[in-house]
Amino acid sequence: MRAEELTALRGLRLFAGIAEATFNDLVAAGYLQFFPPGVTLIHERDPADFLHVVVEGMVELYASAGGRETSMELVRPVGVFILAAVLSDQVYLQSARTLTRARVLMIPAERVRRWLAQDAAFMSAITVELSRSYRQAIKALKNQKLRTGAERLANWLLVAAEAQGADSVMIDIEKRVLASYLGMTPENLSRAFATLGPHGVAPHGARIQLTDRTALQRFAGPDAMIDGIE
Amino acid sequence: MRAEELTALRGLRLFAGIAEATFNDLVAAGYLQFFPPGVTLIHERDPADFLHVVVEGMVELYASAGGRETSMELVRPVGVFILAAVLSDQVYLQSARTLTRARVLMIPAERVRRWLAQDAAFMSAITVELSRSYRQAIKALKNQKLRTGAERLANWLLVAAEAQGADSVMIDIEKRVLASYLGMTPENLSRAFATLGPHGVAPHGARIQLTDRTALQRFAGPDAMIDGIE
DNA sequence: CGCTCGTTTGAGAGGTCTCAATTTGGGTGG
DNA sequence: CCACCCAAATTGAGACCTCTCAAACGAGCG
To answer: How far apart are CA B230 and CA A84, in angstroms?
Structure first.
């Protein structure tokens, strides 16, 4: 592993303040692997064997039921996923697949649980990370129950514009994935973009021009208790 | 506090295995109060001052945005709520109000955080509870994104029937609250019941007769990764 | 007995989905 | 370098689901 990657890993909330020995052993016990795009890393309903850390590339968490499927979360470096299943030694509630070529560190669940009991700082960091995940899930649920599709898209664009610090948003995932993440069909995403036209949104392929941020905000009704990132 | 209530509290996952001194101090520091129905206990956006435990009655967690409101969770004895906000010293993402006359134990957040650092078993128990809450939120999100309203109702009925161990389900909350919890309007809940008619569901006021469990299951498509309780 | 509030029913509008056809854009092989 | 090809994205039509507004119904309470 490259030094800068190690540094990035060390910077994870999950490892904040934990003993050097704990960190080193966890990373040493982990398998760092490259995966091509489209590979399923974990399957819903399987027992949680590894804690996964995305070091490079992008991973999609998704879930299925009754023949339908939906995107639950998009994980970018450096991000952890399926922490809860690992901690309580249960089955995964979500599946995960690579969206791009990706580098993933997989730490044996048993090892995580062992250090948990021995390193109070690690336990503490995990609690923080778990709280964050929980609150993010609550926000996603509110987003889904309290807004229409077009409103979810509008707010997503505002957050993305903020993150990219520009007057336009570059969408670096397939629109079908974005549609699923926002809880709609690809067809509906296209129509949602059309709906946002009068509110200062002009799509040019993957680059979305925001010509009137104020109008978009008026339509979107952003709310820190839904859109806020912690 | 009555002895049986203390026992019930002690049985909470949250307090499993923690030191007697920790438990006693937490309970002693808490305020145990009766509230009439319809009282708002906590407000979204307020800083988290107390960890709440429902000892008696029922409490609804709900959230608002853009003039809309939705029911997020129904907490019965003995249940804890807003744990994540208390742990990370943040604002509440949800509001809470009593649905019935209710008895609630409120433990100062600062006290919870203090013991957290001192009692490893308490920290561990909190991690378990937090994991459970997180997974429940993920399930709720899947339920919302992957099912129609009628399907959510059908699965809710199946779970309730299981819990009540009968061929009929007694709904002990207002139907408008159930509708909001299931992510629909009261009008739509009525229509959802009508939709389930051909699948062995016959409502008689608050008592719902399930005349054909097999047919209802076929319609509902129950899934342990959504409806399972942990 | 009559009021009030929750529930149900009805009608119409808007949102969302499916299926199908067309267009666009990126990648490959000639 | 270009033509082709495939997958993704868009557009269109119609059905279904869900919401709003309005009115009728019914149970509980004064």
So the answer is: 12
Give pLDDT tens digits for A101-117.
Answer: 999 999 999 999 999 98
Asked if B90 contacts B4 with a C-beta cutoff of 8 angstroms, the reply is no
Q: Cα distance from B12 to chain A (closest Cα, Å)?
A: 17
- The Å distance, CA of A22 to C1' of C2, is 74
DSSP for residue A182: T
Which positions 8-67 of A are in contact with B (Cβ < 8 Å)? Answer: 44-45, 63-66
Does residue A43 lie within 7 Å of nucleic acid chain D, judged by its CB? no
A147-227: same fold as A3-144?
A: no
Q: What angle do CA A46, B125, B129 make, to 5 degrees?
A: 55
- Domain map (residue ranges) of chain A: 3-144, 147-227
Give nearest nucleotide to A177 (CA–C1'): D8
* Domain A3-144, CATH number (from 2.60.120.10, 2.30.30.110, 2.50.20.20, 3.30.1240.10): 2.60.120.10
For residue A61 the two structure tokens come to 């968490």
pTM reported for the whole predicted model: 0.95
B185 Cβ within 7 A of any nucleic strand D atom: yes
Chain B positions touching A109 (Cβ under 8 A) are: none
- At A29-56, the pLDDT tens digits run 999 999 999 999 999 999 999 999 999 9
> Nearest Cβ partner of A145 from B70, B85, B135?
B70
Q: Which CATH architecture has domain B147-227?
A: Orthogonal Bundle (1.10)
> A134 vs B133: CB contact, 8 Å cut-off?
yes
Long-range residue pairs from A189-197, CB within 8 A, at least 24 positions apart, any chain: A189/A149, A189/A153, A192/A149, A192/A150, A192/A153, A193/A153, A195/A150, A196/A150, A196/A153, A196/A154, A196/A157
- Report in angstroms the alpha-carbon separations of B119 from A118, A125, B52, B124, B149: 13, 15, 20, 9, 44
Q: Which helix (H) or strand (E) holds B145?
A: helix B120-146
Separation between Cα atoms, residue A39 and residue A100, nearest integer Å: 9
In chain A, residues with a C-beta closer than 8 Å to the C-beta of B147 are 65-66
